Task: inverse folding
């Protein structure tokens, strides 16, 4: 008996896996970025199937929206071209892909053996923003406040790192000519 | 009714693709995107376990992972811009010296 949930799960999963493999296959970073956006959109569908509406919305807005726009912006800013292959990358392909296939087969075997067939009832655990907000501002208030400090430090770090070094600062400033 | 193991398998496949991309890619931006792919795979298993154990804390953790990923993307891309400014390349094979 194939339920509608299983069909939707397989459809979104196929999109996600195809996007992930396409991310590896493409050589131009902009194509990889667009594949990653497809993966994130498909994962938002999976979250909806699991009843996590808030997480699905945040996934689309923050991940596929904000973070990937940042990536695409940097790719355009740096005018990144097709990546060139070197000897080191061939060695990495020869050892990396079989190694990862072996590792994922092992993990898949363990998961299938030990997690059984307990069913996740789709929509059994609704995660509306109200419940998440209750949890976030009561039980997880301290981590939430700490993340705000983290974001602040990250913003300052990004500004400091990305700003042009001044000439009197010495060091790498001599390379900046244009 | 989708078994929990299916979600974990999908999460594992995405994580494995992320690790493979991290190993085989030579463009520093694509390597960074592979890290994001790994984080997404982990998020899926967080949400699947949250639904399985009926614990909403898992979804809150996904929220925190996204916050950390956003901070990491901002700082990491700033570092990439700084590296590109001094080396004028995005290939990690040519970024092999700590000192310029």
Result:
């Amino acid at each position: 008996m194939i339920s509608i949930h299983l069909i939707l799960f397989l459809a979104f999963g196929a999109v996600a896996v195809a996007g992930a493999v396409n991310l590896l296959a493409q050589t131009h970073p902009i194509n990889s970025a667009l594949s990653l956006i497809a993966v994130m959109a498909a994962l938002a569908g999976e979250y909806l199937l699991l009843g996590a509406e808030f997480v699905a919305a945040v996934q689309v807005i923050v991940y596929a929206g904000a973070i990937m726009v940042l990536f695409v912006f940097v790719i355009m800013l740096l005018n990144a071209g097709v990546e060139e292959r070197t000897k080191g990358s061939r060695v990495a392909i020869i050892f990396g892909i079989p190694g990862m296939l072996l590792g994922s087969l092992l993990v898949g075997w363990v998961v299938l053996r030990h997690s059984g067939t307990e069913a996740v009832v789709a929509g059994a655990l609704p995660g509306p923003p109200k419940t998440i907000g209750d949890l976030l501002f009561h039980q997880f208030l301290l981590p939430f406040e700490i993340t705000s400090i983290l974001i602040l430090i990250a913003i300052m770090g990004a500004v400091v790192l990305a700003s042009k070094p001044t000439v009197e600062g010495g060091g790498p400033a001599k390379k900046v000519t244009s | 009714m989708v078994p929990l193991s299916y979600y974990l398998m999908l999460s594992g496949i995405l994580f494995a693709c992320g690790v493979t991309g991290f190993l085989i890619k030579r463009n520093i931006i694509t390597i960074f995107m592979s890290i994001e792919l790994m984080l997404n795979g982990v998020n899926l298993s967080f949400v699947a376990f949250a639904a399985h154990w009926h614990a909403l804390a898992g979804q809150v953790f996904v929220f925190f992972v996204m916050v950390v990923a956003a901070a990491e993307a901002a700082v990491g891309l700033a570092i990439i811009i700084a590296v590109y400014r001094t080396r004028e390349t995005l290939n990690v094979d040519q970024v092999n010296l700590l000192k310029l």
About this structure: The mean pLDDT of chain B is 87. The longest strand of chain B covers residues 2-3. Helices of chain B lie at 4-24, 28-53, 57-87.
